[in-house]
Amino acid sequence: MMDSRSMWRKIPGLDPRFSLILVFMGMFVLTGIFETGYNFFYPYPGMWEVSLLTMVVVSACGAFIAFFPIRSLRTAEARLDTLLNGSPAPQFVIDADHRVIFWNRAMEIESGIKAAEMYGSTDPWRAFYTEQRPTLADLLVDGNVEKFPEWYTGRITRSPLIDGSYEAVDFFPHIGKNGRWFYFTASPVRDDKGVLLGAVESFINVTRSKRTEEVLKANKLLLEDSMELAHMAYWEFDLPSGTFIFNDRFYALYGTTAEREGGYRMPADVYVKNFVLPEDAGLVQERIAASLSSQGPDTPSELEHRIIRRDGEIRYIKVRIRTTRDKTGRTIRSNGANQDITLRIQALISLKESEARYRNVVEDQTEFISRFLPDGTHVFVNDAYCRYFGLKREDIIGHRIRPRIPAEDRERVKQFFASLTPDHPVDSIEHRIIMPDGTILWQRWSDRAIFDSSGTITGYQSVGRDITEQRQAEIALKISEARFLAFISEAAMRLKNPLTLIENNLESVVSDIDRGKVSIPDLTLQLRLQTKNLAQIRSNINELNRAIVDHSGGIPDASKKFLTE
């Protein structure tokens, strides 16, 4: 690899070190000529030796004088070369003709281009771009500061540290696998007379910090969106001044603006006076004082209270307060967030009112209502249920209550509950139950099975009523109907026999009359006999009508009168 010293030798012009060597060589030659001439014109014994010694001494002094600055210069060059090549920051230097005269090792690694390939070239842009264009150092050498916006739109600024230097942050998509972000500076290089000799450009890889910054920005936007959706606003409390520090989102939550409130700072007492409902002011002040006086190292707390917006609307908010302290217990920070929970509170109030109405309806029902788990553990029963079974609510809720069912009905009840499915979750059943005193009663239940998303039964909700009287009435009615049918059958037989006798007698009389065999007395006797039979029939019919009326409660009064008179 070519270093800065070899490049120095390639720069046109005479190396000052060689100038010194030539000077001292000239002095050596001149000294020799002078001594030879002097001895030629003024010879004396031993003078040649003296002249030779003089020449050696002068040459030695000249060589020493020439060698010392050369060695110092080489040492300085070596140190400079080590310093620049050892820098972790990629750097390159161009001269006034845009030729690369330095390309350090870090630049080799970052760009993938060797220094030997770049020395003397005028295309350092190859390390950063795919098409030819000037680098920042090139623009400085040309003095084209006005062209900066053309190549670095909105990304370049004047350095506040070095006069004439510029700095920028930019993304280089063609460097590395996924591109890299660099902070880079370019500074002009001038001699002691101010003549421009070239420019140096340095780079610092800020990809990690830039991507971290992008992640932070994305998280900040996400946080802001989340706070917007959650109706939340952030605030801080300045401990020395005792003032809150708000923001636009906070003021929007309270229906006001920073301009209306005179800025983003507000004393705590002013905030409580202007925005906290008077009934809740004492609670808020107490919680603020408690949060600031707590001795814990990191004290989070929550508080719900009402506020009055600037438009007069009363809203509910939830305040989350975090107070941070150092190891000595001194409060070093207090901040938090306020969340509008009005909709949730209103929903809870409506729910409680609805539950109260539902409970009143449920408790006023004569039906007994219960809700129980698959294992029989009851989670709800109404008063009617408790009264019916003669138990207290606390003796039922949380306990496995299984009513006693006669053996004849158990299998049918078991099959009934097994028939409840997600496609058929509701059904009704009537069965008997054995009460604690041994009495057997009838009940009718309407049961709904409750399923989770996987189709598993999680519980049952049942509404039942006692149908014992109805069942007893049905049984009595069946018995009455049986008796009535027997009576009707008997009455029909009793009616049929006289009518048959009358019919037969009349046929016999008519036959006798036709044959002239019947006498007036016989005919009179037969008529009297049939009249008696007809009276018996009328009596039977009246008795039948009375039986019909007694067993039929829905017959109109006029019909009853017709049937019984």
From TrEMBL:
Q: Which domain of life is it from?
A: Archaea
Its EC top class is transferase
Instruction: Report the residue ranges that make up the PAC domain in this protein.
Output: 162-218, 301-353, 427-479
- Describe the location of the PAS domain by residue ranges: 76-140, 354-424
Annotated GO MF terms:
protein histidine kinase activity
Reaction catalysed by this chain? ATP + protein L-histidine = ADP + protein N-phospho-L-histidine
Protein name per its UniProtKB record: histidine kinase
Q: Which organism is it from?
A: Methanoregula boonei (strain DSM 21154 / JCM 14090 / 6A8)
